[in-house]
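Appendix B. Chain record.
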Amino acid sequence: MRAFAIEHLGLPDSGSYTHYADLKRDVTLWMLSAAPELSLAPKTWCYPFVGCLSYRGYFHHRAAERAAARLSGRGYDVAIHPGLAYSTLGLADDPVLNTMLAYDDVRLAGVLFHELAHELIYLRGDTRFNESFASAVERLGRERWAWSRGLDPESAGLEREDALEQEFNALLGKTRAELEALFASDLEVAAKRRGKAEIYARLQRRYRDWKEHHQTDDFDHWFAGGGPNNAHLALLATYRSAVPAFLLLFAESGEDFPAFYAAVRELGAAPESERGRRLDALLAAASGEAE
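Structure tokens predicted for this chain:
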């Protein structure tokens, strides 16, 4: 997988994933995300080297729970997500972890491609850009890796998985649009709270119908512990919202990885406001193509 990433995807030939570490637990770290009660803007935490991120990682679940309780007490919606891998952006040689081996081979390959993509291109302080770019490389790379191993992506379940994820993201996107309109309205706080509860209840019903139609429980974890809240939607937007934009940019680059990376670097060099406008334009174009 590592050799394929270097030779066929143009990802870094670093010292990462050349050794193994057993953490003696099933989860590498727990990621805490948060958003205000009546906003979908994620809370950020700032660090040396990487800048500000829309989540905070904890190596101990109890520490994440204590931090979540403090934020909840201050009026935030909070969510804790398990993480099975991470990247130190090339600052250290990242190991293959025992937690990563919970994946099947195709998905493990995708995780390696995702983390190595962070070593290749990382924009300080722009979580949406970084995670969506790495997720796009993950999707493109694992499909090509599957073909290289004689696996039909359809029979490996990748096409169905990607289609279901796209539909589920659209389901959450509809909820997100309803919430944004509510939060931006002139309603009183109490009315906004009632409206928020109604919107999330409607999402629960929509999901039950969608789940029954597709006969899948792959997304049930989103509804565990009371169901999605603003923190869940904020984190999803961080990781996945701009993936179609990067996939379109790859297509516009002639499906050539070096040309694609050059285009991503050029986009990353733009001022933040301009970068956001260009990503949104790519997203709109990608949505038009999908329709």
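Further analysis of this model is presented in Appendix C.
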